[in-house]
Amino acid sequence: MIYVDGVPFAPANSSQGTDILMALMEHPVLVSASNAFESMTEKKLSFSDSRNSRWVYLFQREFATVDPKLVDLAGTDEATTCVCVAIRNRKSGMISVAHMDFPEIVDMGLSQMLLSVADQDCDNLLEVHLMGGFDDSLSLKPYPAMKTKTKMEGYSRPLCVKIIETLRKRSEKFQIQILHVLGRNTKWDSEGIAKPIFHGIVVETATGSIFPASFDRTSRCPDEIVRRIRLASCFEDPSWAGKLLDTYDTTTDRFVIAPCAWTIWQKETALSLKNLSDTEILLTRSSSPSAEGPDFVYNERRIADYLIAHPDWKETFPGRKARVFQRAADGAWSTMKDYC
């Protein structure tokens, strides 16, 4: 059930997800909130900042629920057609953040997020922030994870519609705080090409405040490359079908990277990338090549280098054990080698 400004949201004469989304985007309260969000200065985060703040960073398709007593900031970036989702329990202060990429993971993904955020109080309003996607309807590039795609929809709109439909159908009460998606998160360059205004968010756990954010290469950790590889692996692993990737342990404040196997397709792709130009990598590896950030090609090449150097996934996960990282005194993440 969706609320806006403490009042149940019930658009007249429509039960279609697209119509509900458009009505929400035109709601005066949410228009004002979106405008205020857009006027904020983007927070630029780097590892040096973590010496003063404890944070949790999430990659595409990952989620984490954080306890304000253990974590100061939680966020994600690198979103183009993806949507950043933050859900906060006002009473407990618990916050779940996710980087959602396709409609197929929304139903189960929201259930995963709510498992440790929602409580037994059915009257408790859960704060919801949605940021991401853009007007990519002119992008016609197909992507393997999408089963269907119409010319007019692009990738962003079906994902946003699915999120709103799912929130509306669930029994919990969701108060939409920020809805900065699609056209509201779109800018155009000098050549008339649409791009996202913002690519990421960060949540201050003590207050629940949300800000547009970007993270530099030092702050996307721990275990960056392995976690990026795991994203591609999950598309061919039926055990992850329809799910967000669970990476962070809320109670222990540790990252637990479950073992995953590299696929033949990943290895072949890694070898083929060695012969491609930067432009060719953008066109073959991105669903929105004109909107990607400056690190996209660099990251794709690093993933390929790792897969070529470590073709056997069991070298990365000895004994098929998870890779576990704990927070050190200086804010960095260190490996727990004896964890099993």
From TrEMBL:
Single biological process term from Gene Ontology: ubiquitin-dependent protein catabolic process
InterPro entries reported in the protein's UniProt record: NTAN1
Example GO molecular function: protein-N-terminal asparagine amidohydrolase activity
Entry's Gene Ontology cellular component terms: nucleus
Record-linked PANTHER family: N-TERMINAL ASPARAGINE AMIDOHYDROLASE, PROTEIN N-TERMINAL ASPARAGINE AMIDOHYDROLASE
Name this polypeptide is given: Protein N-terminal asparagine amidohydrolase family protein
Organism field: Striga hermonthica
